[in-house]
Amino acid sequence: MSDSFVHLHVHTEYSMLDGAARMKQLFAEVTRLGMPAVAITDHGNMHGAYDFYKQAIAAGVTPVIGVEAYLAPATRFDKKRINWGTPDQKGDDVSGNGGYTHMTMWARNAEGLHNLFRLNSRASMEGYYYKPRMDAELLAEYSSGLMATTGCPSGEIQTRLRLGHTEEALKAAAKYQDIFGKENFFLEIMDHGLEIENRVRNGLLEISRKLDIPPVITNDSHYTRPDEAEAHNALLCVQSGSLLSDPNRFKFDGDGYYIKSAEEMRAIHANEDFWQQGCRNTLLVAEKVDTAGMFTYQNLMPKFPVPEGETEESWFRKEVWAGMNRRWPEGFDEEHRNQADYEIDMILKMGFPSYFLVVADFIMWAKNNGHSVGPGRGSAAGSIVAYALGITDLDPLAHGLIFERFLNPERVSMPDIDVDFDEHGRNETIKYVTERWGADRVAMIATFGTIKAKAAIKDAGRVLGFPYALGDKITKAMPPAVLGKDIPLSGIFDPKHPRYAEAGAVRELVENESDVAKVMEVAKGLEGLVRQTGVHAAGVIMSSESLLDHVPLWRRDADGAIITQFDYPTCESLGLLKMDFLGLRNLTIMADAVANVEVTTGRKIDLLGLTLDDAPTYELLGRGDTLGVFQL
Asked: Does pTM top 0.90 for this prediction?
């Protein structure tokens, strides 16, 4: 194993429109090469950390979870461009036109992983200036459990060396060595045949000798196999809006930005002791990683504050029975009593009393503050407890609805109540929830948009310089989508794919037109890659503890919204609860209509009091006058 190698600088597809390493293929290649570990170091984010961790464990490979961080050249609060050199040194100065330098960091253990979460979150929430930036103060606060390097050629120390600031470079290296600890800080050295790398190598080695900082060799991997270089070039063109034929387009100079074998890495400078030692040190870095407790499930459901002398369970029972008495002031029958008893016991057994109290709290707030709330949608409408607490507004027994569709002891999962609000009420209720439970415990949820098959074809046609009409012709020849999903490009050429027979027109184009064949070849390299982040249309995460301690967060610059860097399935796997706050225009229209009727006729309409046997309503439905009727 001593002659092996570990890739410690790897950009997956979550370095969006820059990295093209897909998780599944990455681990297949690392396993094929017999490497014991591999890192993830995406640009300024940890979107892919959990998926990476799961796939690494499944593959029997040690996950070295990290990030290629952006560091502010002064402090994270200085939102301005800063240059260290003279005007004629602009090309060698602080990257991002004076906005940031780079640093590679990895988590040594669970504490380090959570400190990476905190660093990433605060870099976005406090230091965002074109990029989410950390600074030395934050690094010192959260350095425990971390390892770090001087980073790529855009790192602070390399930048100082290029500018001729030898003393400042030495001081910076000493500063970071002190922050992370002597045994946890390394000088990162790359060689892709770039002049920018070669110019600083001797300076880095001199600092290594003076401060006894061990070198570590990395390859700035942005894709998995060497034959993916062309697809990666196309991806960079998608990012920059350029053509592959443009000699001035943004591209990676040098070569070899893939997962090289240990033999390839060691052969770059086969006779240089520093290089061979740096390769061996990659194994030492990986051996320092202890994955125990890194991603563990915790029950982070919000705890509802109950009056003194009460428990969640006792208060929940009282609230339900008080609600039953409100719903049936004249008393309720044995069937309703038995159903309520059954549901209460089931909810307590499954540990969800707080969930119901929390949901009831914000729904009642919305109703009491004049916002329209839907009567109930989905399986939650089958719960008499939800009806008693005011979460829903229909008696499930009267409508033959089944509680077990909502909660079932044989299928233990987090409860999921979708709540409809009028458009204004949704935002106001989320504000209330944020204030009620704490801004650090409430967040929106990230989603990820990928490059779909048809989009990949059109992107490929554009970067190859073909007319728009060519991409349009190819996509129109594809079989129609089924349930919103197109046939994958691989399926067009795979006789085993169930829709292969429907794709004959596309195959004919590929066989007869060389331009189409070129487009399809590039498109296959783009299809499925993560293109962008988004925000879940309805979901809101609520936690009993600060989210900073459990997941990485990012701040949307446009409106300051705090959003998890993980998607909902990942958040749920870690024990975080999602509430669905849905903004429904129909509720806004209905509320406006009720208000207009009252103004013009003086008549107050109670929407919940309307009967289900109104003949004119059925006549309207029978005529098909249903435009705007929600989920009929």
From this structure: yes
